[in-house]
Amino acid sequence: MIVSSLFSYVLVAMLLFSIGLLGVIARKNIFVIYMSIELMFNAINLLFVALAQYRHSYDGQIFAVLIIATAAAEAAVFLALIVVLFRRKQSLDADAFRALSQKEAA
Amino acid sequence: MSVVLAWIVLLPLCSFVLLGAMYLFSITQRRIAQRYFTFVALFSPAVVFVLGLAALRELILLGHALHYRAYVWLHVGDYRIDMGFLGDKLSLFMVFFITLVSGLIHLYATSYMNKDEGYGKFFAYFHLFTACMLLLVLADGPLMLFIGWEGVGLCSYLLIGFYYQNNANVVAGNKAFIVNRVGDLGFLIGLAMLFFYGQSHDFSYETLALHIGAVPSEILTGIAVALFVGAMGKSAQIPLYVWLPDAMAGPTPVSALIHAATMVTAGVYMVARFHFLYDLVPHVGIFIAYIGALSAFFAALIATKQSDIKKILAYSTMSQLGYMFVSVGLGAYDSALFHVFTHAFFKALLFMGAGAVIVALHHEQDIFKMGEMRRVMPVTYATMLIATLAISGIPPFAGFFSKDEILSVAFGSGHYELWLIGTVTAALSSYYMFRLFFVVFEGTHASHSRAHDVDWVMKAPLIVLAVGATFAGFLGLPELLGGKHLIGEWLAPWRREAFHLSHVVEEILIALNVVAALLGIAIAYRKFRFYDRRVAYKPEGIVYRKFYVDELYDVLFVQSIQRLSRFIAETMDKKLVDRVVMGMSRGFVAAGTRIAWVQNASVRLYAFIMIAGIGAASCYLLAVLR
């Protein structure tokens, strides 16, 4: 059944997105945060592909390919950033980077 | 040719700018020798005097008033105010003796201020004063008169505080300026009322005189009183006289020129100038006359106990101004101006003589530390004697004729109490003047070995003024004595009504005046002719303390205002305004710190807030779009 398979796709996408969101909010490690963001990306990707299939249109699939390409580029930037940040504080704890906070400035 | 009027004002103004620039150059760049200042300082008054004479000649030849319009100052709709100069008999009469006396005082001051640090500054101020005073008398409308009026006040302030290193002088200058502000407020109110009610196309005396009849009489009374309040301040009458004795803190030529001969008579001139207004409100005139009489008497009484030579002269100036106001109040403006004229001579002479004595004794002003000065400075002695006789009203010296005329006006007007006060004051005047004279020049056992005579630059103006003080009165010889009253004829329009007294009464009045003056002299002679300097004289009592008027004003006005401002500064400002303002800012700071907690740079919190926001926005959109 196509409808029920679409529903399961959407369900999986929602689960993936929620897990990613939780990871961004709850975890401290920058790496894990990055991975969670990627998870959310892929949840959206999954939604694109599933809905494109459902509507018999290729627009969503093209979008998904585009997003994968963007995510690859973004991964390169993000990993470089993480290296720089780690060099600074010798830590991957997101809470360690507070240069913009009120207290840090004072 | 009437452009000469403008030059009479402009020339001192130019020399003021020149002297000021030279002085600034001298103190900032390179020293300029004193003789260059002296040249400018003496050149300009001499030329102005000649210009004044030229204008006078022009007036006599033409037979009508000179009028010069320099340019239009204000032009609004139909209304226009010209920068105009009016040279009629009154103003040119004033110009004549102002330029004469001021020229002589300039000459005197070159010696008095010799080697002074602020020599150039002094003469710059002096020239500015001369320009303002001449503008005051040559103005063709009240507005221009007011420019000069404020200008002379400013110069008076600057020159009283000339020795600004001494704080007392600065305080005296402030006092003069502030008391004059009180009077000037009245003057401004008067001008504003005149402006509103004198409906016409311009604001000159001429048009005001034409339209003054249309103003309701209550308003006229208000205007007359308000303008007179200005005169009270400038001419040191009760109750705004307190600044004049303190104004003696300035250099003596300043006292002679500004606070005796010219500026203080501006009030008398102003009332005479507005005679078309004061003629319509004789009851205000009576008020003025009483203020004048009271001031004359009060000042004379205070002067009898003072010991500072310049303060005695200051009170005598106030007293003589009181006589002038009696006269203008009764509508005899010409008699008042006659007294202004003679007074300018003998009072300038008295101040300059006093200045010479002060210089001779190395700036000693207490008369009881002087004595026997006749031996040191015979010329000053002789000229001071003439001036003292003149102010006491002994014939044939100048003061006698003018004072006698004022007293006979007071008698003839039927206000016998004014006459009585005037006569008693005359006796007091001769008493305190001869008291000063005997103590300073006669006396015994003086011990000032360091005293030296002054140079001829100071003595020459004394002699010229002594001639003036002797003969100026003959310009106004009463008909009784077989003369022609030249000044009375010249200023004929400035008399409201003629008071006719029979010859017998006039003779009795003259005799009484002379007797009163002689009485004063006799008492002074008995008490002070052989004043022994070794006996310490300690003046005391309520009269010496000037009836505690200064203290009274201090409590009434100064301290009450200070208390009010202290209340506002310490209670209102700190406890009310500051508390509100500081409370508000503290509130903002507190709120800010509380909100700043959000900005704690925790990425995860930001993400949460962002997602919560997106969630809320989505819910809202769902609710709206459904």
Report what the structure shows.
The complex is a heterodimer of chains A (106) and B (626). Chain A is an all-alpha fold. Chain A has helices at 2-26, 30-55, 59-89, 102-105. In chain A, 81% of the residues lie in helices and 0% in strands. In chain A, helix 1 (2-26) runs antiparallel to helix 2 and helix 2 runs antiparallel to helix 3. The radius of gyration of chain A is 18 Å and the shape is elongated. The N and C termini of chain A lie far apart (61 Å). By secondary structure, chain B is mainly alpha-helical. Chain B has three domains: 1-195, no CATH class; 281-541, no CATH class; 552-625. Chain B has 25 helices and two strands. Chain B has helices at residues 3-28, 34-62, 89-112, 119-138, 142-160, 167-197, 205-211, 217-234, 243-246, 252-261, 266-273, 275-278, 282-303, 309-329, 333-360, 373-376, 378-392, 398-412, 416-441, 456-471, 486-490, 503-528, 541-544, 549-596, 603-625, and strands at residues 66-76, 79-87. In chain B, strands 1-2 form a two-stranded antiparallel sheet. The interface between A and B is medium-sized, with 17 and 11 residues.
